[in-house]
Fold this sequence. Notes:
Blueprint (H helix, E strand, L loop, with lengths): L7 H8 L18 H12 L6 H4 L6 E3 L2 E3 L9 E6 L7 H12 L2 E6 L15 E9 L3 E5 L8 E2 L2 E5 H11 L2 E8 L7 H18 L2 H14 L2 H6 L1 H23 L10 H26 L6 H23 L3
Antiparallel strand pairs: 1-2, 3-9, 4-5, 4-9, 5-6, 6-8, 7-8
Amino acid sequence: MEPSQKTIAQTILSRNTDWRFPDGEGLSQRTLDCRQLCMMEVLKWKGVSRLTPIFLNAFDCESAGMLLRRQEPQLNLGWKLTRYSPSNPEGLFPLIQSIFDHEGYVLLFYKAHEAPFSGYYEKYDIVHWSLLIGCDEQGVDLVDDEGAPAYFNGYIGRVPREVLQDTLGASGFGGAAIIKEDPAYTRSWEEDFRSLVQMSVDNMINREGLKNLASFVQAVETAPLEELTGNLERLEFDIHYYRRLRELWKTAVEKQVVPERCVAPGWVEELLYVCKSWSLVMGVLAKWKRQPQRDYRLKLTDYLNQTLESERGFFRELQRIL
């Protein structure tokens, strides 16, 4: 698969990219995180079709109090991410320029909390990814769904060289990455999918993922009301990130991406319940943020407990296809 004759910038700008809306495969901000969305654009530019199998991941769950986490997503079907980090902030720009000249794009990662060009600046201490589609001595052109308005017009932004270097200097973290396909990869999509199911069952049932989720629900139930209301925005952020993978699996079912021999009514039905349950949780959080003077704890914890039961039912059914 060779890239289009157009540059990646020409390709993206000609499509008026907007990740809020699903593409032909149903992929959007609802199903993919920032890194995956950037990868998606690169893969489309390279002429790769049927992207959902590349992005589908195994389920897992980690929690610490009211923090809800899942592992960093991986790639399937022989695709690999390779990262490069400079030894100092001054080395970032030469690194970016070298990769861009060779590959035609750069996947850029950095701490969003220290990046003034990010909508997450001084808000969330997370690793964020942008797609670099242009580079010169003065700065870089980025595609990002959370760009700060001072630097971005919609999804396209321009960040000066010194701002980018200062971001890396402030955090001591960041770098560039590319994705490559292993031409020797021979496993079928059904083999990869069954591995994802096995890992999901191991992670959630055998390695206490469901217990970690239950601990998270309990932490929300027992937290002082003032602490809970002070963390609504972060809870919304964490839960939205956590539920994305469930939405991606649902999309894979709807678009008939799941291998036919792995589809079973039991787990598919339970997956729909899981997605609906998490949507109800998100709805309560959004309402509570709009009406902070109200107390929605009982409704929130009721929906969270319903969601926990839905998750247990889903993984019981998913285990049956092994």
